[in-house]
Every structure is written in structure tokens, then in C-alpha cells.
């Protein structure tokens, strides 16, 4: 269950029941009863309070998900995962080349030739 978060902390003003209800509800659950409304004033007030707590839980959760610190951490974690994935692929390519895989050797030789070509072009243009 996701928690109602404000600045990466659970909002103590929103109880767990409201958080759970907010996550399970759909817009149609908040529509007024069809036909004549037979609810008492107290029932309507309870419904309003319940909906208000559920809405607060939803807003708190969204605020937590969209906080700049949280977004920054998510982006940082994603970038670190991509770097680790690239590093693992490069290591696997080098390992394959050491084992004598002709395709891996060709890729590394082509990459080295391309880098050397770019360096030579840069030197010649000076």
C-alpha cells in the first residue's frame, strides 16, 4: 500500500483507513445517489468528511510523488542503473573478445578505428 506522503513523510493527519479508501475509489464512487436522496443530514456530513479525508490522502500522495527531492532521487537512481547496465554490457563485450569471439573483436576494433579516425581528423584540421 502506498502511503500518504508530504516531504517524504507520512501525513499523520490522514489515517490509514482514508489512505486505503482513497486508493480503492473511483470517480463514480463519489456521485450523489440516483433519484431522491434519502440520507439524513448526519449521513451527508459523514460522507463529506470521509470524502474530504480521502481527497486529502490523495493530494498528499501526489505531493509526495512530485516533490523535487523525490523526483531528483528517482532520476539519479535511473541514471545510476543505466550506467551500471552499460558498464556490464561493455565488460561482457571485453570478456567475449578475450575469449576469442570474432564479432566482439570486430566491434572493439571498429570502435577503436573510429576513435582514432576522429582524433586524426581533429589533429589535421588544426
Q: Would you give an account of this structure?
A:
The protein has helices spanning 16-24, 41-65, 68-98, 102-124, and strands at residues 5-6, 9-10. It is mainly α and 126 residues long. A two-stranded antiparallel ribbon has the order 1-2. It is 70% helix and 3% strand. The chain is built from 4 helices and 2 strands. It folds into 2 domains: 1-66, no CATH class; 82-126.
Helix content: 55-70%
Approximately what portion of the residues adopt beta-strand conformation?
under 5%
Radius of gyration: 29 Å
Question: What is the string of SSEs from the N terminus onward?
Answer: EEHHHH
Helical region count? 4
- Counting structural domains, the number is 2
Please state the structural category: mainly alpha
Largest sheet: 2 strands, antiparallel
Q: What is the tally of beta strands?
A: 2
List keywords for this structure.
4 helices; rod-shaped; mainly alpha; 2 domains; 2 strands; two-stranded antiparallel ribbon
Question: What would a concise description of this structure say?
Answer:
This protein has helices spanning 16-24, 41-65, 68-98, 102-124; strands spanning 5-6, 9-10. It is mainly α.
Topology:
Layout: E1 5-6, E2 9-10, H1 16-24, H2 41-65, H3 68-98, H4 102-124
Antiparallel strand pairs: 1-2
Helix pairs in contact: 1-2, 3-4
Amino acid at each position: 500500500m502506498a502511503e500518504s506522503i508530504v516531504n517524504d513523510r507520512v501525513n499523520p493527519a490522514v489515517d490509514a483507513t482514508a489512505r486505503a479508501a482513497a486508493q480503492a475509489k473511483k470517480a463514480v464512487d463519489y456521485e450523489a445517489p440516483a433519484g431522491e436522496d434519502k440520507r439524513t443530514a448526519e449521513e451527508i456530513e459523514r460522507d463529506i468528511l470521509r470524502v474530504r479525508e480521502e481527497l486529502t490522502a490523495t493530494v498528499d500522495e501526489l505531493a509526495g510523488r512530485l516533490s523535487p527531492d523525490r523526483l531528483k532521487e528517482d532520476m539519479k537512481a535511473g541514471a545510476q542503473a543505466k550506467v551500471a547496465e552499460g558498464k556490464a554490457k561493455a565488460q561482457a563485450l571485453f570478456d567475449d573478445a578475450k575469449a576469442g569471439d570474432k564479432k566482439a573483436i570486430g566491434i572493439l576494433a571498429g570502435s577503436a578505428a573510429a576513435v582514432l579516425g576522429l582524433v586524426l581528423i581533429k589533429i589535421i584540421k588544426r
